[in-house]
């Protein structure tokens, strides 16, 4: 349709000019003037169409980003708490302004809501606390509109103004909100270190206030950020500390979430027995709470652990149970992941054709919903099936494609797994030096992110490759250095865990 419109706009003036030449009463100069006028109008129209298309594209990008941002936020507060409403006291006009802004937030008209909140900043009877709350809520509105710089500006203004709040508890509570919002915002800008800094501030402030539940929640968030930075030992400390608080509070919702996170870290360390215990505990909590999504996610986690243990039939049972739940609740991402996981189990059971069909089906769904991490995983799985069939070139093509995606999204564990697969392919091709370079890179990243589960295999392959190229002493050196590293790391993990 766009092509037809563009052809009409561009060729229209030419056809009209040809027609004008057939009219005898018009002079050549008059025809030329008319032609140039029509051409100018057409060029303006083309420019307008291009601007509209660009605007639509930019809007689509912003909406996609906003959806992603809000989907991942743990403690984002878009509205007023009951205490904030109560603190408005007997000022009906101020209460009306806040309520009016809230109504616009509920209608998704964030621009208008921000405008109304701004009025609260300049109201003569607005206290310092009211102004800080308004600054936070304006920041939230800008976050919803994907105007992140403006959001950060208003959060920082709230932080400055909070110093003027005389009541200690109100001042600390305001700071708590700001620290958390800044942390979440920076995290989704890809600035994880800043996010971690503000999450620590939120946790410390929460402790001062004696807010146990919030403290545990912030510790859990710190664990997730540390995990994303590859600081697995720190992440485990955060999760274990959060779990102790949730235990004392008998908060089953919090325990379910944090136990699942502990299980994930222990699995990365290769502590599969303990990882399984925590995943099963998380599953039981989610069942008790009736949280279908939590149940399905933990079923997948348990299936992954059974697969690592080589118990493929057990893994298949859990994957199928998860598939049923994802289907029931209409979770496309979970549905695709469980189908892909079932596919890889069929590969393990020696049924490559069934495996390939399931994995390719899962890949289509992940591509459709834009889940890049899962797209890379399924492409890697297709490569594995081709690798099993000794289709080396095809396997390498898929592995390299998956590696590129993981590099783009900075998913380091995925990089390690695929670098190992590529290294193995080059061993099959008898290109030992090339294989060695891929395994060394995999080991380097594994150490950096403490991905210990894969390290023994990588180290052993490096040793064998040095032997193949006639340098066994270098291989033994790698073994000795790596064993020392692993011993130190496992001692650290056991200390935290026990």
Description:
The structure is a single chain. The protein is mainly α and 498 residues long. Among the domains are: 1-48, no CATH class; 425-498. The protein is 84% helix and 0% strand. It has 23 helices and no strands. The chain has helices spanning 2-21, 28-72, 82-86, 92-106, 110-121, 128-144, 148-162, 168-188, 192-209, 212-228, 232-249, 252-268, 272-289, 292-308, 312-329, 332-348, 352-369, 372-388, 392-408, 412-428, 432-449, 455-468, 472-497. The longest helix has 45 residues, at 28-72. It is globular. The relative contact order is 0.04.
Quick take:
This protein is mostly helical and about 500 residues long.
| Mean of all residue-level pLDDT scores | 82
Instruction: Tell me the structural class.
Output: mainly alpha
* SS field, number of helical segments: 23
Identify low-pLDDT runs: 56-83
The percentage helix is over 70%
Ordered list of secondary-structure elements with their pairings:
Blueprint: H1 2-21, H2 28-72, H3 82-86, H4 92-106, H5 110-121, H6 128-144, H7 148-162, H8 168-188, H9 192-209, H10 212-228, H11 232-249, H12 252-268, H13 272-289, H14 292-308, H15 312-329, H16 332-348, H17 352-369, H18 372-388, H19 392-408, H20 412-428, H21 432-449, H22 455-468, H23 472-497
């Amino acid at each position: 349709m766009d092509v037809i419109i563009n052809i009409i706009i561009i060729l229209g003036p030419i056809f009209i000019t040809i027609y004008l030449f057939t009219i005898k009463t018009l002079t050549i100069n008059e025809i030329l003037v008319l032609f140039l006028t029509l051409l100018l109008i057409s060029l303006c129209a083309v420019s307008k169409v291009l601007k509209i298309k660009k605007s639509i594209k930019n809007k689509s990008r912003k909406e996609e980003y906003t959806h992603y941002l809000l989907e991942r936020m743990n403690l984002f507060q878009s509205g007023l708490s009951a205490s904030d409403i109560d603190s408005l006291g007997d000022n009906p006009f101020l209460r009306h302004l806040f309520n009016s802004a809230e109504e616009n937030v509920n209608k998704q008209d964030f621009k208008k809501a921000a405008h109304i909140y701004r009025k609260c900043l300049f109201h003569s009877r607005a206290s310092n606390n009211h102004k800080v709350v308004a600054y936070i809520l304006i920041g939230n509105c800008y976050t919803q509109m994907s105007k992140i710089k403006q959001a950060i500006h208003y959060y920082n203004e709230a932080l400055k103004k909070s110093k003027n709040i005389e009541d200690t508890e109100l001042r600390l509570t305001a700071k708590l909100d700001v620290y958390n919002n800044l942390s979440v915002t920076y995290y989704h800008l890809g600035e994880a270190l800043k996010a971690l800094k503000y999450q620590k501030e939120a946790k410390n402030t929460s402790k001062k206030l004696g807010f146990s539940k919030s403290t545990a929640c912030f510790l859990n968030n710190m664990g997730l950020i540390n995990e994303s930075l590859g600081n697995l030992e720190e992440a485990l400390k955060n999760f274990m500390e959060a779990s102790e608080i949730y235990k004392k509070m008998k908060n089953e919702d919090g325990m379910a979430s944090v136990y699942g996170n502990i299980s994930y870290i222990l699995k990365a360390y290769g502590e599969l027995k303990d990882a399984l215990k925590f995943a099963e505990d998380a599953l039981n909590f989610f069942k008790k709470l009736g949280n279908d999504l939590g149940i399905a996610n933990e079923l997948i986690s348990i299936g992954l652990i059974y697969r690592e243990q080589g118990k493929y039939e057990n893994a298949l049972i859990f994957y199928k149970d998860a598939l049923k739940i994802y289907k029931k609740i209409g979770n496309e991402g979970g549905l695709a992941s469980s189908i892909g996981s079932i596919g890889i189990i069929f590969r393990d059971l020696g049924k490559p054709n069934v495996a390939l069909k399931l994995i390719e089906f899962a890949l289509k769904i992940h591509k459709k919903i834009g889940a890049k991490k899962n797209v890379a995983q399924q492409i890697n799985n297709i490569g594995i099936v081709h690798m099993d069939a000794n289709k080396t070139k095809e396997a390498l093509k898929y592995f390299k494609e998956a590696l590129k995606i993981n590099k783009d999204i900075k998913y380091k564990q995925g990089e390690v797994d695929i670098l190992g697969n590529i290294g193995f392919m080059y061993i099959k091709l008898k290109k030992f030096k090339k294989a060695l370079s891929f395994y060394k890179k995999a080991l380097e990243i594994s150490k950096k992110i403490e991905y210990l589960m894969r390290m023994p295999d990588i180290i052993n392959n490096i040793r064998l490759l040095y032997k193949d190229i006639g340098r066994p002493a270098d291989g033994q050196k790698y073994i000795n250095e790596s064993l020392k590293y692993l011993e130190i790391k496992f001692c650290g993990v056991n200390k935290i865990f026990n």
